[in-house]
Amino acid sequence: MPIEMFNSQRSHKINKPQLKEFALGVLKCLELDTSEVTIIFVGDRKMRQLNRDFRGIDKSTDVLSFSYKESNTSEDNNIDEKFYEDLSNFTGNYLGDVVISTKTANIYAQKLGLTFEQEVKTLILHGLLHLAGYDHETDNGEMDELEGKLRKQLLGLEQIPALSVDS
């Protein structure tokens, strides 16, 4: 199964079949439809812990991506590089994990005038772009441009202004 989806929270209903179909559509657009990913829905407490443990930022965020194709040797991350190498060799086409905080997604949806489902799909798109190797912090707008095009094509949404958790 190219998309595995886990719901580890109870505050928001997750339509797994529809979201899996959307994620497959994103992978197809990126010509990665033979790749495998895991999408995990969590609450803010778990997201804060992940953000603190892996990025050193002690607050929740909306989406995190954990690529198994990249190795991160930062001692702060507690990532077992050998484990990721073994997993990548074992699964072949495994891109990684996208983790989404449903609470933060719901807050952003309300602020942006979107439905919860539209925001979750936007976060899936964003996370999958990161797994495909894009990085909006270093690529001179390439990811943002592609994300805008795919958001319009797949969701019928124009460019949405970025929000921070502090917004």
Task: Set down the secondary structure blueprint.
Blueprint: E1 3-7, H1 16-29, E2 36-42, H2 44-55, E3 63-67, H3 81-91, E4 94-101, H4 102-112, H5 116-131, H6 142-155
Parallel strand pairs: 1-2, 2-4
Antiparallel strand pairs: 3-4
Helix pairs in contact: 1-5, 4-5, 5-6
Describe the structure.
With 167 residues, the protein is an alpha/beta fold. The chain has 6 helices and 4 strands. The longest helix has 16 residues. It is globular. The chain starts with a strand and ends in a 12-residue tail after the last helix.
Summarize the structure.
With 167 residues, the protein is an alpha/beta fold. It contains 6 helices and 4 strands; from the N terminus they run βαβαβαβααα.
Question: What's the helix count?
Answer: 6
- Rounded to the nearest angstrom, the radius of gyration is 15 Å
Average pLDDT confidence is 85
Give, in order, the helices and strands: EHEHEHEHHH
> Based on helices, strands and strand pairing, what is the structural class?
alpha/beta
Q: Largest sheet at a glance? A: 4 strands, mixed
Lateral arrangement of strands in the main beta sheet = 1-2-4-3
Straight-line N-to-C gap: 37 Å
What low-confidence regions span 5 or more consecutive residues with pLDDT below 50? 71-80
Give the tally of β-strands.
4
**What is the assembly state of the chains in this entry?**
single chain
How large a portion of the residues is in β-strands, by DSSP E? 5-15%
Shape descriptor reads globular
Helix content: 40-55%
